[in-house]
Write a structure and sequence with these properties.
Length: 554
């Protein structure tokens, strides 16, 4: 019975909502009909005549002031709307309408799910947003002391944001600490050092830890932050390697004795892999590229499961420097798999290899006459695939936007990843003759294949909408963040811009040509009310005069 009563109330409520939704037009016409019938008792005609006489007595100066004031007010609204859109990415009027006015007017989504389903949907969307905007450690991140700090000394600008450095601090605590650190004094000091915000305090803590013991993580901190050259950093990393290998061998023998020993061994493994990868990067930066490639290959064979460091991206860049394109293709064959996460490095390197086969002889004029060959079509499709994954990269490769130092963390498919890729790989594209020309001729064609407005992707998942916000947190304030897709101007900005321009033009014309504008206004009003007068005359001619007389007497 209770369920039946609830169902009846729901049906009654839906009927009332339906009546308010569809019958308001009928009530509107009924009100218009009543006003027309009561026009004599209400003296509507006399009032209209009085208003028209008053308007005829107004001078052109009044209309100039009226249109000028309207133009000023709409201009102020336009300026505020534009400022709000530039700062928050949305229209203030639209936001207020959706957030406050729509609930008051009873705007309800009839297809809204139940409360439980809505909660589940919100949870799913939040999980999707988090996964889309996951921030990754930059595999090719620079050295803080030897590169980032040198940039600050020269330019006076900070290349890293607080958000980026805070993420690095969290990474260090995850990789370089464990629950048993308090049992060893040097590791206990370093555990506090990784949480310290002041760089000098971190460096002092690392020196203090080294006075107690040969601590690998202390050497890592000094190599990253205190060393002012790559040579100094390499020396410190070699000392860290010696200490780290000893800790790794000891913990490897005890890893099966308990959960604490297993956690310690995991920490020592992370430390050892990090040191060897950074040593390989030092060798690459110092010109010993073949040595760096060997170190990276050995590291990937020794620890094949530690894919979180993305060492294959370091290997790809080093192999491109050696112009070992066959080895690059072999690495891509392993990692450019549908089941593995993609990156700009993988997609654009694959495009570079296919472009290399045809770019030296490619001519857009010849291609337009004879059509694209199979190899050229494959190269263009690879470029389109790469651009769809990260549409920000081509502007940096084509030097349409200036590069900055890459951050320590990147957002895949975002501007930060594009900067990190182009910073290291621009030289490889320039080395391949005609590759940048082919990219310049074909990359914009990608956007004709992607559905708009981006409900679904073409080869990848739809482009995430949160990249701009995350990139603004990762990139310094002096860099202009690349935004995709470009935001369209809201309707109210266009409307107020048109209203401001139109009223300003009316004010100018009324001031310069008052008589002509008066004639124009009268002609416009008479034309505007001509259909209404025609309808009224037809109604009076159709209705019987006796009925019409009785209705007007009511």
């Amino acid at each position: 019975m209770a369920e039946a009563g609830t169902g009846f109330l729901e049906q009654l409520k839906s009927c009332i909502v339906w009546s308010w939704t569809y019958l308001w037009t009928l009530w509107f016409f009924i009100m218009l009909f009543l006003v027309y019938i009561l026009r004599v008792p209400l003296k509507i005609n006399d009032n209209l005549t009085t208003v028209s006489m008053f308007l005829n007595t107004l001078t052109p100066k009044f209309y100039v002031a009226l249109t000028g004031t309207s133009s000023l007010i709409s201009g102020l609204i336009l300026i505020f709307e534009w400022w709000y859109f530039r700062k928050y990415g949305t229209s203030f009027i639209e936001q207020v309408s959706v957030s406050h006015l729509r609930p008051l007017l009873g705007g309800v989504d009839n297809s809204a799910p139940s409360a439980a389903n809505a909660a589940n949907g919100e949870a799913d969307s939040s999980r999707q947003s988090v996964s889309e905007c996951k921030v990754w450690r930059n595999p090719l991140n620079l050295f803080r002391g030897a590169e980032y700090n040198r940039y600050t000394w020269v330019t006076g600008r900070e290349p890293l944001t607080y958000y980026d450095m805070n993420l690095s601090a969290q990474d260090h605590q995850t990789f370089f600490t464990c629950d048993t650190d308090h049992l060893r004094p040097a590791d206990a000091i370093m555990q506090k050092a990784w949480r310290e915000r002041n760089p000098q305090a971190r460096i002092s803590a690392a020196h203090e830890a080294l006075e107690l013991n040969e601590c690998a993580t202390a050497y890592i901190l000094l190599a990253e932050e205190e060393a002012t050259t790559i040579v100094e950093a390499e020396k410190l990393f070699k000392q860290a390697l010696k200490a780290g290998e000893g800790c790794y061998r000891r913990s490897q023998q005890l890893q099966h004795h308990g959960a604490q020993y297993e956690a310690q061994h995991r920490r020592d493994t992370n430390v050892l892999v990090y040191i060897k990868r950074r040593l390989a990067m030092c060798a690459r930066k110092l010109g010993r590229t073949r040595e760096a490639v060997k170190m990276m290959r050995d590291l990937m064979k020794e620890f094949p499961l530690l894919s979180m460091f993305n060492i294959h991206e370091n290997l790809l860049e080093a192999l491109l420097e050696l112009q070992a394109y066959a080895d690059v293709q072999a690495v891509l064959a392993k990692y450019d798999d549908i089941s593995l996460p993609k990156s700009a490095t993988i997609c654009y390197t694959a495009a570079l290899l296919k472009a290399r086969a045809v770019s030296d002889k490619f001519s857009p004029e010849a291609a337009s006459r004879r059509g694209l060959s199979t190899a050229e079509m494959n190269a263009v499709e690879a470029i389109h695939r790469a651009v769809e994954f990260n549409p920000h990269v081509p502007k940096y490769l084509l030097e349409m936007k200036s590069l900055i130092l890459p951050p320590e963390h990147i957002l895949k498919r975002g501007d930060s990843e594009a900067i990190a890729y182009a910073f290291f790989h621009l030289q490889h594209w320039k080395r391949v003759e005609g590759a940048l020309n082919l990219l310049h001729c074909t990359w914009e064609g990608t956007f004709r294949m992607i559905p708009y407005p981006l409900e679904k992707g073409h080869l990848f998942y739809p482009y995430p909408i949160c990249t701009e916000t995350a990139d603004r947190e990762l990139l310094p304030s002096f860099h202009e963040v690349s935004v995709y897709p470009k935001k369209e101007l809201p309707f109210f900005i266009l409307f107020t811009a048109g209203l401001c321009s139109f009223t300003a033009m009316l004010a100018l014309l009324t001031h310069q040509f008052p008589e002509l504008m008066g004639v124009f206004a009268k002609a416009f009003l008479s034309t505007l009310f001509a259909p209404l007068n025609f309808v009224m005359e037809k109604v009076e001619s159709i209705l019987p005069s006796s009925l019409w007389h009785q209705l007007t007497r009511i």
